[in-house]
Amino acid sequence: MQKVVKTKFENDDGPTKIYRDLAGVVSMQTIKLWIKKVRNTGSIELSSPPGRPRTARTKANMLKAKQCLDQKRVSTRRLAAEMNISKSSIHRILRKDLGCFPYKKIKQPKLTDVQKKKRVKFANWVLNSYTKGDITRWLFSDEKYFDLNGTYHNQNDRIWAISREEADKRGAIYETTKFSVKVMVWLGVCSEGLSVPVTFEDGSMDAQRYIDEVLPIALECALDLVCVADRENGRIVCFDDEINNDDDGDDETNENNQSQVKAIIDHPLMRTVYAMYYDPIKHRLYAVSGRLRQSYAMGFTFSVHPESFGQLITTWEPNDKFGDPHDLALSVNGRSLYVGEIRPNRIDSFNVLN
């Protein structure tokens, strides 16, 4: 900042203009003092620093402290004893002069060089093999034990008292029990949020128990529907994803399939349904209808969220109306919707955010 003031003064700028150009970062009194020094000495820097000279935070001690840190790990107390200066001076040298900060050690699994290379190779394989749409279907899970003792962090809980006995009377004792009751909790997270927690009170986790008790609950959290476009009836029919595939045409099988219909989405303006697309991130179902007699083709956005399933969010169409829409798709980032038409032969693009 001193160099800026000096340069502007040498360019015939007055104190007021310099003060305004610096937007008040430096006070007017300081600017005038610096200009006075430039006029008298040609420089703003002081010939000698004000106050008493430093005896601890000298350049020699700074260099020595830096060399000690580079050579070995050492505490501030031991470094102060080796350099024969106070611990507070060492702390100021490390923090203010050298710009260091005391970092705690981080616990992590020990990995060999071969394991590190394999992890990097696996990460690159995932990036090259899966799209964003695939990642939205991933479920990450973990288990953890909780006991009745809970967790206690003695670094952020203090009782101020004049003696240990007085502190004990004020609740400075945290009691724990050996072999306390433990429960295991499982939780999963995906692009749509958290799953329902699963609690295990007895026994330990193994592969079979995971399959029998955890996976059924995790699958219930997913949108277990298969939706099809019923073009002739102008509606969208959603079935349970466990539809009986052994359809031999008998009445019993047809009745079972009809009982697995979970929902029917229809709207008076949706006369025919030519294509649809499901967005699991926004919980939306996009559909496009065709022309029928006097009705125009139109696009529809429905909610498939469990709390508002089947509700119409909005309708959409191009400025010059649809011709004969045939198919639609959503971009990888989920921001653009594309509709393919066969008459005229074109692709319409819509901004999903709008």
Could you characterize the architecture of this molecule?
InterPro entries: RNaseH_sf. It is a single chain. It is built from 11 helices and 14 strands. With 354 residues, it is of the alpha+beta class. The strands form 4 sheets. Strands 1, 2, 3 and 4 form a 4-stranded antiparallel sheet that branches. Strands 8-9-10-11 form a 4-stranded antiparallel sheet, with no helix packed on it. The chain has a 3-stranded antiparallel sheet with strand order 5-6-7. It is flat. The protein starts with a helix and ends with a strand.
The helix-and-strand class reads: alpha+beta
What is the arithmetic mean of pLDDT? 81
**CATH class designation of the largest domain:** Mainly Beta
- So what's the overall shape? flat
Number of helices: 11
CATH architecture type of the largest domain: 6 Propeller
Instruction: Provide the β-strand percentage band.
Output: 15-25%
Count of individual beta strands: 14
Tally of individual domains = 3
Distance between the termini: 48 Å
Spans of at least 5 consecutive residues with low confidence: none
| CATH H-level superfamily title of the largest domain | TolB, C-terminal domain
Share in helix: 25-40%
The CATH topology of the largest domain is given as: Neuraminidase
Strand-and-helix sequence, N→C?
A: HHHHHHHHEHEEEHEEHEEEEEEEE
| Sheet with the most strands, sense and barrel status | 4 strands, antiparallel
**Rg:** 36 Å
Protein name: Transposase
GO molecular function: nucleic acid binding
Organism: Rotaria magnacalcarata
InterPro entries: RNaseH_sf
